[in-house]
Amino acid sequence: MSLRLGAMLPEVFRHLFKRPATVLYPFEKNTVPARLRGRPVMDPDKCIGCRMCERDCPAEAIEVTQESETRTDDGKVKRRFSMVVYVDRCAHCGQCEEICPAKPDKAIKLNEFFEEAAFDRGALKIVYK
Amino acid sequence: MALEKLVKWSRVSSPWLLHFNSGSCNGCDIEIVAALMPRYDLERFGALLKASPRHADVLVCTGPVTRQQADRLKRIYDQMAEPKFVVAVGSCACSGEVFRGLYNCMGGIDSVIPVNAYIPGCAARPDAILDGVAKLLAALKKG
Amino acid sequence: MSETFVLPVGPQHPALKEPTSFRFKVDGEYIVDADLRLGYNHRGMEKGCEARTYVQDIYLLERVCGICSNAHMTCFAQGVERLMGIEPPPRGVFIRCLMGELERIHSHLLWLGVAGHEIGFDTFFMYTWRDREVVMDLLEMVSGNRVNYGMQTFGGVRRDLDGMQIKTLLEGIAALKARTPYYLNLGATEPTMVARIAGVGKLPREKAIELTAAGPTTRASGVDFDVRKDDPYAGFGDLIPFTIVTDNGCDVLARVVVRAKEMMASYDIMEFILRNLPAGEVRTKAPRKVPEGETVSRVEAQRGELIHYIRANGTDKPDRVKVRAPTLANWPSTLYMLRGAYLADIPIIMAAIDPCLSCTDRMAVISDVRGGEKVWDWETLRQYGIEFHRRRGIRP
Amino acid sequence: MDLLKVALYLLVYPGLLFLFVYSTFVEWVDRKLYARFQHRRGPLYTGRAGLLQPIADFVKLMAKEDIVPSSADKPLFNAVPVLALAAVLTSGLLLPVWHFTTGIVSATSFPGDIIVMAYLLSLPTFAYFLAGWASASMYASIGAVRVLTLLFSYEVPMFLAILSPAVMAGSWRMAEIARFYQLHPGYLPVNIIAFAVAILALQAKLERLPFDIPEAETELVGGTFTEYSGRKLALFRLLTDVQMVTGAGFLATLFLAGFPGGLVPGFLWFIAKTLFIVLILSAIRAVTARIRIDQMVNFSWSYLAPAALLQLVAVIIVKGYLP
Amino acid sequence: MTVDNIKTTLEQSLPGKIIELTHPSARVMFLHVAKADLVAACTVLRDQLGFYHLSTITGRDTGDKLEALYHFARSGMTLTVRAQTERSRPSLPTIIGVYPGATFYEREVHDMVGIVIDGHPDLRPLVLPEGWPDGIHPLRKDWQYNREEGVIK
Ligand code: SF4
Ligand code: SF4
Ligand code: SF4
Ligand code: SF4
Ligand code: SF4
Ligand code: SF4
Ligand code: SF4
Ligand code: SF4
What we know:
The structure holds five protein chains of five kinds. By secondary structure, chain A is of the alpha+beta class. Chain A contains three helices and five strands; from the N terminus they run H-E-H-E-E-H-E-E. Chain A has a single domain (34-128), classed as Alpha-Beta Plaits, CATH 3.30.70.3270. Chain A has helices spanning 9-16, 52-56, 95-99, and strands at residues 40-42, 62-71, 77-86, 108-110, 125-128. In chain A, the strands form two sheets. A three-stranded antiparallel sheet of chain A has the order 2-3-5, with no helix packed on it. In chain A, strands 1-4 form a two-stranded antiparallel ribbon. In chain A, a hairpin with a 5-residue loop joins strand 2 and strand 3 (77-86). Chain B is an alpha/beta fold. Chain B has five helices and five strands, in the order H-E-H-E-E-H-E-H-E-H. Chain B has helices at residues 2-13, 27-36, 67-79, 91-95, 126-142; strands at 16-21, 48-49, 58-62, 85-89, 117-119. Chain B has a five-stranded parallel sheet with strand order 2-1-3-4-5. In chain B, helix 2 packs across helix 5. Chain B starts with a helix and ends with a helix. Chain D is mostly helical. Chain D has one domain (64-321). Chains in contact: A-B, A-C, A-D, B-C, B-D, B-E, C-D, C-E. Chain C binds chain E through residues 39, 42, 44, 46-47, 82, 209-214, 225, 229-231, 293-296, 298, 305, 307, 309, 311, 320, 322, 324, 328-329, 331-332, 362-366, 373, 375-379, 381-382, and chain E through 24-25, 27-28, 30, 52-56, 58, 60-61, 69, 71, 73-78, 80, 99-105, 107-108, 111-112, 124-132, 138-139, 145. The complex binds iron/sulfur cluster (8 copies). The site of one iron/sulfur cluster (SF4) has 11 residues of chain C, from helix 1.
């Protein structure tokens, strides 16, 4: 076995003259991949209130509540649902988005927002009405 | 005044971290280490990872706090010198996440010691951690 | 300094990023005896699984560990598929396998860096982790998360690859492939590094078998034990070719070499997958309820054999889920390696099995430091612990 | 006038103020270089390009709660950092930065000051030992024992190494040695082996990679300093920085022909030469892994000490042939 | 070695001792033996069938009995040996004489379901946090954990 002292020496000195690999993150935004699973966002206009998301969520992060029940002129019942998402519990697994049966567009989706840091857990309880 | 300002400035400029795993899945621990690595380089803010609780200012915790670790978490916290801050990294450190209700988890760092900042995410990305640290420092600078 | 004393390492010891506690009887700079206490990370997940549905369980089990999250998911998914009697479509199988290999690369790079760090070689640590970001970006691009990929599900994978992504993956893999020999070269020739790892932590072949070691630890002792060959899954065996890497060095150096070569083998597997990706669906429909039955599912995770035992009772919740992750299989051999070693070699010997305790940590070896063999309850032990630290100047 | 000069000497250059400011600067240089070697940025936002980082660290530690473990030997625990700092600060005063002519023998430059200097530079090591001992904590005690073991292994090569230039120059006074090489720069390369040995020994003295055995973070948490916090930890950190400056200055005096040319050029030389040595120290830190204590002892007795001895013999022979 | 080979070898070496031998899916087999024949079965597996690797041991509560499942592996086959014990005084013999690597797994079974492993040299209560109440084994079906109010917010 050849023992070459400082096999790294050239590499190390080369880096002195190279631009460091560091990104200046909070001061320069970086790009995130399109598939990033960030915060779950719900659209009350689309939700049909099936509670599949609530049932499948592994982290008890979703609570769906019925807000109102109105009868339209043609006799159909129209219900409106609100949702609480506890971002401090969410595991960002995306199961809620996957299971949501609302058509033609899912009522709950994970967006690309990930800078959630907060000083208070209350701020992480997000209500969609 | 002047002195106070200087001290405050020094505190904000030199946050030394102590990392504590209270029973997490390692995911966030790896991301904390990744935040110290060349790509994100937390040392830009003057942050250094320290091994002794006596040297550290910020306790960076991960994990849903297992019963076994709860005691130790508290002890480490007590060993740190004032002023000290606690940051909970990862959803499971914030609230217990998927481990909520398991018989051996307390569910979140704040069930054991007071927490100054929460960084949810599973795993919290290194940039989310950076963002959290920057927010905490900015808040300290102000108040 | 020939006095023997007990050095408790952990659970806050920096060499172990995860909590665990060892007790070493130390004589000067030598370790006379090693004892291990786990249990700091026991979360009670197996019980938790019985109270959750299969869908929730797969995400819970993913979080057994952030390093082999995908291995746990794959293992559980494939076991449940076996019980359901369904098979993922070929494209799903290929992507499942791709995720496993990507994860192996990220884990081995992580390990290489940590091993460097444990012996105080921080520059090496920085370089490997800088290059690891390449894999992390690939994983995040494919799955949407850097740690818990959430890719596997019952009946296949959750996300497909498009042409653009395949191109990026191939580029990233080529870049890493060019870089890996440099690390192998460094790890095997840099004198301060070699001086620390050659001949350290010997584990003879017979011992490796006898103590049921797994993964690179046992392959570095010359045993060709690899689940991908022994119990082919996710396309290994018939669809996807691969080679097993072994080494006869039986020491830490051999484990470095095995892991580095294994990475080279993984690059080849991934390139094969990406070039021969079948068309079609990535998942089939799976029922919510699982018919009664039991099965054993195994996967070759980065650190060795991972095994799940699943028993279903016909409802949408499992009757019993048992998880045994690779690190637990490697503890008996680690204790064997530690006896008689230098104090200074503890970190590198432990790092060499790449211990990840979050999955393993299910036991506590409670040993009376004063030599007796009694069992203490929580309060006594706590009291003792407080005393113990107070005597040494750490305030409780 | 004289009083003013003494005051200037003690407090400004090369005394307290200069040593404090310059040592923080050197720490910054070291951290920055180390980071750049690792393809990172290092401190960036504290002051311009992170220049004020070491000062911020220092001030913060000064203002932090100071815990003394209850089982520690309190008087010793408290006294050690101050004593050790005093020792290195004194060693700073001995650096021949004001002695542009060698005629004057003053309190800070006298025949034999090279020995006193070497001795003062060793004192902190004893302080580390005492610090570890006084902490009465397990990690710290193991660290303390290692400090001593380490001391015995590098101290002899260090002394042998600094003898070579002195023998060559035929003087025991740093100012004269430096002057000798300023006049005969051709003799500088003769001491190259001794220089290498001295650099390695200095690295060991400063307990930096690959010789940071007593602090080995992954085995012993914070080593001898595990129990120190707040003000005293700040002093220890300052101490190490000052030790790096004076150590570098010491080697520059002996092996790089000192700091010629009067006040301003001399000052610039001082900066340039010490930074050069710091660069070497940082590079060593970046490319090596920590070695084991037994390997260290082996290494220094089977390579360092013989090399230094060989060098000494060579120097004596060369000296014999000299006109 | 095919499934049939394994079957015949087992039937020859353990005559009359096999309670049940199943093969539910490819490369998975289950063998049920009586508690008294456990060590003999393990020896046969190791010496005659080449199962050199013990993957793990699972403890399980079947409702009326407790059982341990020993998962063995060799190239191309995973074979699980099942042994049951009554609930009142649950115990099983140790197999560390045959597979020394079983130490930790046996201790775990002891903790999680409360089967006493006869002949194990070091069966101090382990698992679980310090101070865990005696006699409670979390994986028994009759033990349910009720979340303490207020602990988990
Ligand atoms: S079909 Fe879906 S929405 Fe309807 S009851 Fe079943 S689970 Fe609920
Ligand atoms: S992403 Fe997962 S954890 Fe988060 S709310 Fe949706 S289902 Fe729950
Ligand atoms: S699954 Fe979709 S439609 Fe159903 S309750 Fe949730 S958000 Fe609404
Ligand atoms: S938040 Fe998620 S990734 Fe982070 S430690 Fe917890 S479970 Fe692991
Ligand atoms: S240097 Fe020490 S504290 Fe920092 S990551 Fe490594 S082991 Fe942990
Ligand atoms: S035994 Fe392991 S997998 Fe199960 S809960 Fe404990 S730590 Fe988790
Ligand atoms: S050994 Fe365990 S903790 Fe480690 S990576 Fe594997 S499953 Fe995760
Ligand atoms: S032991 Fe493994 S999981 Fe733990 S920090 Fe090290 S590499 Fe990561």
